[in-house]
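Colleagues,

For the teaching module next term, I've prepared a clean inverse folding example: a structure given as tokens, and then the sequence designed for it. I'd like students to try predicting residues themselves before seeing the answer, so please don't circulate the second half yet.
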């Protein structure tokens, strides 16, 4: 008598030949978050939020994820892969097109996104219109010795504009919030202290790079 294969249930999903999860890990809309919620204060824990709003806890030390793929299937789930790519633990393969990558890739974690280069090496860089920018020429490139808040100041989308003399600037964040930074008084209208403020750091970076007028209102080349 032939042995019947048990049917899948809600608790035991069907095991089948599944496609590789690497492309999904790179292209699907997901946010990898560190130092928040269950991951707060735990350097090996990350929260991965999918486009559907589902949240999974990834433990990089134990190599586990709360998702069904990791629990019931003998594969490396897309959430663990996404964390590895977003934190720079694993370089992004050369076969993936930059335009396919999620726009928020690696924005909310401390780490350097890396890319496999055509000569087989690995490059650390940031995204700009889907392309890799040379870190030596880019004032917003993230470096290994950057503090976490400086990394956030460089990575996050911000629009800095000169507001008024002497040294007042307006910062529009990706969330459409607007903050006023005074570089001379060393203040920002956000809740953070100036020592932790990413907006203050971003303004300082753009002033030094000549991307915005100096505190006296003069243009960088003036």
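(Answer key — instructors only)
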């Amino acid at each position: 008598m032939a042995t019947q294969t048990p049917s899948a249930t809600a608790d035991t999903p069907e095991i089948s030949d599944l496609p590789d999860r690497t492309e999904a890990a790179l292209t699907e809309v997901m946010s990898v978050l560190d130092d928040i919620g269950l991951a707060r204060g735990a350097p090996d824990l990350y929260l991965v939020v999918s486009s559907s709003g589902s949240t999974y806890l990834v433990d990089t030390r134990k190599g586990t994820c709360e998702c069904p793929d990791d629990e019931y299937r003998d594969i490396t789930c897309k959430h663990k892969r996404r964390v590895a790519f977003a934190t720079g633990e694993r370089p992004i393969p050369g076969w993936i097109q930059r335009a396919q990558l999620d726009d928020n890739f690696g924005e909310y974690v401390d780490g350097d996104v890396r890319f496999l280069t055509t000569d087989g090496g690995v490059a650390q860089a940031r995204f700009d219109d889907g392309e890799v920018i040379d870190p030596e020429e880019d004032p917003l490139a993230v470096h290994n010795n950057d503090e976490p808040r400086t990394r956030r100041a460089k990575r996050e989308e911000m629009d800095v504009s000169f507001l008024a003399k002497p040294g007042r600037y307006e910062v529009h964040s990706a969330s459409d919030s607007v903050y006023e930074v005074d570089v001379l008084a060393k203040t920002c209208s956000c809740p953070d202290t100036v020592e932790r403020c990413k907006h203050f750091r971003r303004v300082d970076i753009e002033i030094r790079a000549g991307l915005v007028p100096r505190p006296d209102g003069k243009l960088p080349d003036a």
